[in-house]
């Protein structure tokens, strides 16, 4: 008997699923980044900077977590950034008009969710490919927002409302609590509910899912509504943090959110990925950009680096899966 | 106990009828094997100039394979070709074209958004004197000549997608003739044609015959076989089982030659004596997919067959019952209640579909055995909508044992299982969902013999436990062996029902083919 055979027979092996392995690699990558940045700069490993990274990651994560569910079904939502714009501007108007942050917040969430439902209906009922439907929606929302704002800015909100974006509780920013809350809720929803399982099944094979009796249309509408609602959440946190609303608020957020999902290990073909993976993806992306700032790298390089990381992460996943 | 239809077919090959002259094309001892299937086994076949040679056989008898060997799409593993008595090689479609062989498949090879002339001369366009440009005037002039030849009165500038099926067929024929085809092979050319269009096609065929073109004609219509054929060849299970002249044979004799396939069924089926309540009933059912006026009933404890030729509408009936295609008229009743809504509603009512294409429609290949086994039964297994991976795995483990699915673990990717085990996973997911009416569409397609018996034993067990089964199969022998009774379809309608006593391959084929 060969030596190799003896060793493999004698060593108890922990079996990890492919998805779990990929996740562990990502956590290791994030950890390595932290260690490297701590060594390279004095400014990285400070309470202020760590909290700053987490707060930035949270904004990215709100969008990316909703997007993750859409991508799990094999779809894409390109309208999330534009959704933030309209949701934030409407919420700002309501706060200004009524003086009620609660009503304003509700308006932002409802607007985001309604836009998501529209996307879902176009994809599920009209059978328009999600890329096209949400791309069209992106322009429609930009158009509506620009017309509505007419170049104006709405600013100056009640201090209580601004706490949502810039306040602290026990020394930790409020958005970070929100992020942890949505991380737990999203993970439970995707992994531990019947609906979550059905969403994975739809992404893995939509035809089979339908012929297995899964109400595919309703689940699709649900995930787009959820993605829209998360854009609504992002719009409120954004608004509270910036203390002002403009027509182009959130416009630059869509592509980084997609990047976070992809770095987090989700497949654009559907059926593969997780909310936790996306959380790690958002963290990695934020860490890298933060590190570049601290190292005083010209910010013009940031898009290039983002692109390289996305391609590299997806390529590693592909060779990882092929080996099995 | 009925005798099992597993008699070895007797081969009574008449000597090839005497013919003057040399065949324009002769194939001797052609064999072609695919993994697990002998598609063609020592088939010899000859065709003479100016004759119509009818090729007959059931689904899967080897007609399509023979066509593909003829046109060079498949390379035979063994056998010889003779063209005008001279030994030749046909290794590619280009070789076949050189010997004047042209094949018109049921699925046309025309480009819909090009016009008639461009399609006829596709890949053989006429260059203009200016390098890189095409001589369009000459293209339409030549196309018009071809259209005159076949008597098709359309403008060569008409886009093909604007033509009817019959006209497209004529364009295909014109295209073949423009390539100087001397041997024209046609696969069920009249399947989609009206009576008038059929007449027109036959007229063109007679003109071609008069010009010495040899025609090989695959048909499922007995009337055509006797009206047009000069010579008949019958295939079964990839083997040549008979040659005949139309004047010396009868439809009954041809049907007898076509059926009698060998099936290995090594378990006895217990036929229910008392079927239970009516589980499925359709009344005047028509669907968006073309089926019309379907009336059928399936009771608990019964296996009911749905047979007919490929394309006769069997799968479409299954899809309409399951809600995958829209019902345009009539109704589907499950346990007496009218079914409305889509597949989710049907599944909820207790219907499970085991589709023909396991990989494309039955399974999520990137997911595990456990995931696939749980997916249909999720609402039943987890009534409070909270999913538990442990419980799903335990349920999967039970099914794996009960169905004897060969997999190292429930966490194995379903993609690596064999066809038979994959099929068991698809059946298992419906068991987890508490399904009472199983619709099987070609349950044994692509499954080896041992696994076939297992699948049938499983189906038998299902009905013994009170389930109802509707089973679609192209293997007449399977239907005869397994079913309590069967409906026969032709042209998107049910044309007859065969009770246990009348259920024979010959009756199925006769009903499925006759066209009075």
From TrEMBL, chain A:
InterPro entries: ABC_transp_permease. It comes from the Bacteria. It is a multi-pass membrane protein. Its main location: membrane. One of its GO terms (cellular component) is plasma membrane. The chain crosses the membrane at residues 23-45, 57-76, 102-124, 131-148, 168-190, 220-240, 276-295, 301-319. The keyword Cell inner membrane applies. CDD domains: TM_PBP1_transp_AraH_like. Keywords: Cell inner membrane, Cell membrane, Membrane, Transmembrane, Transmembrane helix, Transport. One of its GO terms (molecular function) is transmembrane transporter activity. It is found in: Cell membrane. This is Ribose transport system permease protein. It comes from Xanthobacter flavus.
């Amino acid at each position: 008997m060969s030596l190799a055979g003896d060793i493999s027979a004698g060593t108890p092996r922990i079996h990890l699923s492919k998805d779990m392995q990929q996740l562990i690699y990502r956590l290791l990558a994030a950890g390595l980044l932290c260690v490297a940045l701590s060594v390279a700069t004095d400014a990285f490993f400070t309470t202020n900077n760590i909290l700053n990274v987490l707060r930035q990651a949270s904004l990215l994560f709100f969008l990316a977590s909703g997007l993750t569910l859409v991508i799990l079904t094999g779809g894409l939502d390109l309208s999330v950034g534009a959704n933030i714009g309209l949701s934030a501007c409407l919420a700002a108007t309501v706060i200004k008009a009524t003086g009620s942050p609660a009503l304003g917040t509700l308006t932002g969430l409802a607007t985001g969710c309604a836009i998501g439902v529209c996307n879902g209906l176009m994809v599920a009922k009209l059978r328009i490919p999600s890329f096209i439907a949400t791309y069209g929606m992106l322009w429609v929302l930009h158009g509506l927002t620009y017309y509505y704002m007419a170049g104006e800015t709405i600013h100056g909100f009640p201090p209580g409302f601004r706490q949502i974006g810039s306040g602290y509780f026990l020394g930790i920013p409020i958005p970070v609590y929100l992020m942890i809350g949505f991380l737990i809720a999203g993970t439970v929803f995707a992994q531990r509910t019947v609906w979550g399982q059905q969403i994975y099944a739809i992404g893995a094979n939509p035809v089979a899912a339908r012929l297995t009796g899964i109400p595919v249309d309703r689940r699709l509408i649900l995930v787009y509504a959820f993605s829209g609602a998360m854009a609504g959440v992002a719009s409120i946190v954004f608004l509270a943090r910036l203390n002002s609303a403009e027509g182009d608020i959130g416009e630059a957020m869509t592509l980084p959110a997609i990047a976070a999902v992809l770095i987090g290990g989700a497949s654009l073909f559907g059926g593969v990925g997780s909310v936790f993976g996306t959380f790690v993806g958002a963290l990695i992306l934020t860490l890298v950009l933060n590190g570049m700032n601290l190292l005083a790298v010209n910010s013009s390089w940031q898009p290039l680096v983002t692109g390289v990381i996305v391609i590299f992460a997806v390529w590693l996943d592909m060779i990882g899966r092929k080996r099995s | 106990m009925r005798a099992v239809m597993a008699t070895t077919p007797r081969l009574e090959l008449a000597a090839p009828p005497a013919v003057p002259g040399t065949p324009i094309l002769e194939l001797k001892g052609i064999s072609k094997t695919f993994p697990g299937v002998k598609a063609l086994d020592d088939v010899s076949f000859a065709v003479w100039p100016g004759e119509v040679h009818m090729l007959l056989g059931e689904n899967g008898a080897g007609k399509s394979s023979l066509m593909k060997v003829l046109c060079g799409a498949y390379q035979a593993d063994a056998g010889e070709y003779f063209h005008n008595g001279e030994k030749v090689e046909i290794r590619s479609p280009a070789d076949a074209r050189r010997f004047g062989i042209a094949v018109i498949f049921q699925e046309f090879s025309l480009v819909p958004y090009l016009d008639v002339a461009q399609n006829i001369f596709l890949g053989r366009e006429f260059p203009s004197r200016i390098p890189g440009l095409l001589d369009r005037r000459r293209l339409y002039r030549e196309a018009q000549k071809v259209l005159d030849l076949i008597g098709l009165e359309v403008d060569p500038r008409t886009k093909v997608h604007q033509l009817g099926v019959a006209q497209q067929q004529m364009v295909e024929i014109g295209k073949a003739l423009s390539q100087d085809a001397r041997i024209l092979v046609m696969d069920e050319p009249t399947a989609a044609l009206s009576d008038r269009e059929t007449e027109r096609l036959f007229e063109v065929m007679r003109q071609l015959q008069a010009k010495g073109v040899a025609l090989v004609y695959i048909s499922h219509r007995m009337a055509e076989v006797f009206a047009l054929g000069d010579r008949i060849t019958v295939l079964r299970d990839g083997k040549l089982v008979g040659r005949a002249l139309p004047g010396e044979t009868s439809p009954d004799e041809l049907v007898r030659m076509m059926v009698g396939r060998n099936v290995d069924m090594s378990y006895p089926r217990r036929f229910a004596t008392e079927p239970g309540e009516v589980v499925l009933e359709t009344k005047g059912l028509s669907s968006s997919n073309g089926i019309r006026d379907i009336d059928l009933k399936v009771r608990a404890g019964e296996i009911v067959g749905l047979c007919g030729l490929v394309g006769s509408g069997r799968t479409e009936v299954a899809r309409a019952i399951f809600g995958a295609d829209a019902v345009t008229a009539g109704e589907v009743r499950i346990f007496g209640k009218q079914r409305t809504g889509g597949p989710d509603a049907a599944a909820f009512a207790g219907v499970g579909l085991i589709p023909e294409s396991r990989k494309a429609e039955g399974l999520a290949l990137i997911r595990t055995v456990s995931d696939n086994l749980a997916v249909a039964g999720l609402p039943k297994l987890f009534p409070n909508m909270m999913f538990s991976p442990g419980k799903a795995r335990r349920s999967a483990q039970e099914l794996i044992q009960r169905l004897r699915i060969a997999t190292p673990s429930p966490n194995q990717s379903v993609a690596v299982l064999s066809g038979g085990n994959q099929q068991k996973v698809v059946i298992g997911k419906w068991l987890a969902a508490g399904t009472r009416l199983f619709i099987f569409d070609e349950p044994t397609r692509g499954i080896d013999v041992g696994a076939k018996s297992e699948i049938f034993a499983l189906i038998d067990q299902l009905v013994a436990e009170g389930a109802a089964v509707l089973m679609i199969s192209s293997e007449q022998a399977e239907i005869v062996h397994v079913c309590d009774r069967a409906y026969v379809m032709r042209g998107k309608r049910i044309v007859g029902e065969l009770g246990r006593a009348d259920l024979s391959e010959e009756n199925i084929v006769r009903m499925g083919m006759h066209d009075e």
